[in-house]
Structure prediction request, 393 residues.
Amino acid sequence: MEAGEPSAVNCLILSGDQPMNISWLFNAAPFPPAMSDISISQSNKKLSMLSILAVTHEHVGNYSCVASNLAGTSVMSASLLVNVPPKIQPFTFGEDSREAGDSVSSVCQLTGDLPMNITWLMNGIVIPGGSGSETEESPDISVSQTGRRMSMLAIEAVKHTHAGNYTCFAVNQGGNASYSAELKVNVSPKIQPFSFGEEPREAGESTSVTCMLTGDLPMNITWLMNGILIPGGSDSEAEESPDISVSQTGRRMSMLAIEAVKHTHAGNYTCFAVNQAGNASYSAELKVNVSPKIQPFSFGDEPREAGDTASVSCLLTGDIPMNITWLMNGKVCPSSSGSESEESPDISVSQTGRRLSMLAIEAVKHTHAGNYTCFAVNQAGNASYSAELKVNG
Prediction:
């Protein structure tokens, strides 16, 4: 019979003297108190009926009708067979979320008729593998059959891909059953690599990078430049660098943009993310080609007297290497440090640093009057600045 169906059996006494006693035994013993769902009724002196409202696996066994009178006893037995479907004892991975890297396991214990087939599913998809085998897709998930009515699922080191619902599904001749438990995993942030590009940016260009993440929410995303926090939340701008903007374009996405890069923007930009499970960071370097820029210089407002000394320094910013040249009235002056020109042996040019050059005249004369230009060039561009030397006489 199938579990849940009603069942009844009659015991009819064909002959025998009265008075007569009719009783029932279960597996040659009186009925245990737990089997209170079995009812026995006697409709006349020679007919007794045993009935079960809904049979279960507990009702499986031999039922005996015992009739006795002064002359003797007679016994007749019948077996009740019940197809018992599987029943799964509840299991869980625990109420708290697991940390990435933890090991977890859960056991599916069953009752029901044998043979029985037990299968595990994750989010409704079958996890391949029998006793002790491992899945092809997830080699760190193992399913082992530890008994004919027991199966264990184990994960050696959980990660975010393991989070989900795990179902034990069992089937036999009597039916099937399933039970599910959720595995929660605390997943720390993980940042997808980003880059400003391999080539340096030219000053004035716009640039941006996007920090895309995976991991549990809520998540806080922060940007740093050279290890220093860039203020600003969603669509806000940094106070120190008003042309640097940070915008939160999604709960797991943040974009940093620079409207017009300049040499002060060159450096390492770091996306730092933190959630309940941990934190992560990723950095990318922004390289900027910075053309020369010359700090203004002057020989002074007043003309020089013949015989006076005069000098000016050309101080620059910009990328190295940088070539610095001096010109007088558009014609190149010697640029070697400490060298003197054949035409003007008393004009000397000295390179006192990679970004500093000095022009000096030991004794000015009227032939030295004119415009002196410092011209600098590097990979990013060039710059020039001129100052007039006035000489009396």
Notes: Residues 130-137, 233-240, 336-343 have pLDDT under 50 and may be disordered. The two ends are 131 Å apart (CA to CA). The chain is about 0% helix and 50% strand. Residues 21 and 68 are 5 Å apart (CA to CA).
